[in-house]
Every structure is written in C-alpha cells, then in structure tokens.
Amino acid sequence: MKDRVILHVDQNSFYASVEMLRQPSLKTVPCAVAGDPANRHGIVLAKNRLAKRAGIKTGETIWQAKQKCPQLILVPPDYRSYLHFSRLARALYCEYTDRVEPFGIDECWMDLTGCPDHDGFAVAEQLRARVKEELGLTVSVGVSWNKIYAKLGSDLKKPDATTVISRDNYPCIVYSRPVEDLLYVGHATYRKLRRVGIRTIGQLVAAGPHFLRTMFGIVGLSLYSFAAGLDTTPVASSGREIPVKSVGNSITTRHDLYTEQDIKAVTYMLTESVSSRLRDAGMAARTVQVSLRDYQLYNIERQAPLPLPSQLCSEIAPEAFKLIMANFRQGQWIRSLGVRACNLIPLSKLNQESFLPQEKRRQAVWRLENTIDSLRGRYGGLAVRRGILLADRSLTGHDIKNENVIHPIGFFGP
Ligand SMILES: [Mg+2]
C-alpha cells in the first residue's frame, strides 16, 4: 500500500502574531499576550520574537516575565479575532483537501493522499507562502506519512519553515529527539520513562512493544506505534466532524459585575458568539443554560427551554438574561458568567412553520444576524457590535486601542 501524505500546519506564536498584525508597532518591542495583565499572577499565553529573546516563556506568570524584561508590553487576549484568523487559515487549507482536522485553534492536520496536489513538500511550501501573503502570518509545516511524525516535524523548524520526515530520513531525524517531543507523552509518562532510562524516541522504539505494554498497559502499545511511525489514525474530514452537542461561551470579567446593565452587556456579548457558532454549524438550540460564579466562588448552573428552537442572539440572549436575573441575589457580585446553547437540532430537521405570523419577522432577524456574521467574517469581530456592548468597553474585553485598528462600522441595538 502506498504511504499517506500528511501535513501538520502550525501557526507560529499565533496570538502574538495576530496582535502584531493589528498593531504593527508591537513588532518593534518585546510583547506578550497575557491572561489578565492587571493581575501579576496572570499567565503569558504567547510572546513575540523580541520577548522570546529576552527569555520570556509561554506559561510563566506575568510577574516572572516582568522580572526578566521590565519593558515587556502586555496585551490582553482577543479570542474573537484569533478565531477569525484561525477560520481564514482553515478555509485556505480546505482548498487542497476536505480532510482537514483542527488541533487547537492554531494547528491542523491535512491528508493529501489521492488529492490532485499530493506532493507534500510542494503543498507545504505553497501554504507557507500563501498564509504569509494572504493573512500576513507565518506557519511551520511538518510533512510525513503519519500524524505523529507530521506534528513532530512542524515543531522542529520554526518560524516559517517546512520539515519533511520521510521513510529515508526518519531514523536520523526522529530517533535522536527527546521523548517528550512525541505527541501524547505528558508529564507523568515522561517521568516514568526517565526512571527506566528512556530519554529519546529511539530508545522508546528500542524498548519494544512488550516491555512498554508491561509498563503502561495498552497505552504502551500506542506509545510504541507513535514512536516507531506505525500510527494509522486517520485525519478526520471536516465534513465528518463529531456532531456538536452544545455551544457555549463564558468569561471571567476584569471587574465584578453587579449592575443589571453590566450583566446584560456581558450576556449579549457571550450569546452573540454562541449564536454565530450555531449558525455556522447549522444548528438550532432548544435549551439555554447559564452559569454564574460569584466573588465567593459560589457556582450556579441553570437551564430553561427556549420558546422556539433558535439560533438567533435576539431570541436566546433575553432568555439567558432572564435566567441569570432570576438566580442573581442583590449584593452578590458576579465574577464569571457563561451562556450555553444545548439540546441542539439540525436546522434542516426543523419544521418550516412559515404560516406562523411571527415566522416572517424571525426570517428577517435571521437574515440580519447572518449578514452580521459575514461582515464580521470579512472585517473582524469588532466590525459590527450591539449598542449595548459599548456601555463599558473594559467589561467586554475590547480596549480602545484595538479599535484604532478595526473601526466599528455600525451598531445594532439589543
Ligand atoms: Mg502554534
């Protein structure tokens, strides 16, 4: 049987690169995207090259980072815009094959086997050039015959590089790598392997399946096949994704919420991305669920049926807001808030109850919200925002400095 042609594409310093795209001045200073810049225990999520040169590491606290590099510029994460660029990149990959499997927000596997463009290296080089040209971002690509080696390859040279791991060169490239470079070798496995003297992937292969099985049980066999390039796990097709069961979004706000206006603004913001993802997936929700956590870290989760199955923010958000207010005690400050659409059904299975008088109005709202989705797709998440979200920018996480880059082009009211 002929070998598969598998690519793993990894966007380099993804969050930081998107921020530099939006604010080019950040390119000339050490900068990091960090969970909560106001909190020195917040964590560095991504960093640019200058920050890396200063020794900043992903996952360390802001406090540690500032010790190393006092002039480090911190930027809060804007997941909406990362999602936007993630989708654009994925759409580009889908031009080559329908077998594109996302792994996190900034990585994808692609299976090119049997595609018109099936020269792995050529496609990798093309993708690298196109992502740079069309999105202004860079990627590292690994090319191999299995997902594990492809992933390993994309880690070997970055940024903006291609690494081919072939049948000819794999013992030379892969076997000398430390065992923790292998996907799925977590901290516990790593420590166990070290205890028996296994430090490289080559030593893991040499240990053999029987030894690994006695050590790790059935997982040991997978570990062996990953290390030896024997893994045959398919790349999931984008069309055959695991069906979405629910769509949710939650936020821990920068300051506690205690007024009705604040809570409403955040509820609408959360529901907007929930409903836009429902429309993307072609699903409607029959139930809305909310979760709140107050400043004493007391959690509440409540759900209620929607009057009609819906994928509209203007229908889901008021129900979510009602549910939150019914469970909100005066004097209780909310620290974090979540909205989830559940009990989903495909839109195609919904009866077209077009004889209902309200259905015409719903169709109009549906068209409006869809138009907004496509405007956002084209101009970024901040292009169109509900008037209510402008009440307090610090709540909804968008700083004024972001708006210098992407101008709001219109608002619509809740
Ligand atoms: Mg990455």
CATH architecture of the largest domain: 2-Layer Sandwich
Structure class: alpha+beta
Lateral arrangement of strands in the main beta sheet:
5-6-1-7-8
Can you tell me the CATH topology of the largest domain? Dna Ligase, domain 1
The gyration radius over C-alpha positions equals 24 Å
CATH homology superfamily name of the largest domain:
DNA polymerase, Y-family, little finger domain
Shape annotation = globular
Bound small molecules, deduplicated: magnesium ion
Number of helices: 14
SSE order, one letter for each helix or strand: EHEEHHEHEEHEHEHHHHEHEEHEHEHE
Total domains, how many?
3
Mean pLDDT, rounded to whole units? 83
Q: How would a textbook summarize the main sheet?
A: 5 strands, mixed
Care to describe what's here?
The protein is 40% helix and 21% strand. It has helices at 14-22, 49-53, 62-68, 79-93, 120-135, 147-156, 170-174, 187-195, 201-216, 218-228, 260-281, 313-326, 357-379, 400-403, and strands at residues 6-11, 31-34, 44-47, 73-75, 100-102, 107-111, 139-144, 161-164, 247-257, 283-294, 299-310, 334-346, 384-386, 410-412. The protein has 414 residues and is α+β, with helices and mostly antiparallel strands. It folds into 3 domains: 6-11 and 82-228, Alpha-Beta Plaits (2-Layer Sandwich); 14-79, MutS, DNA mismatch repair protein, domain I (3-Layer(aba) Sandwich), CATH 3.40.1170; 247-412, Dna Ligase, domain 1. The longest helix is centred in the last third of the chain and has 23 residues, at 357-379. Strand 5 and strand 6 (107-111) form a beta hairpin. The strands form 4 sheets. A 5-stranded mixed β-sheet has the order 5-6-1-7-8. It contains 14 helices and 14 strands. The site of magnesium ion (MG) has 6 residues, from strand 1.
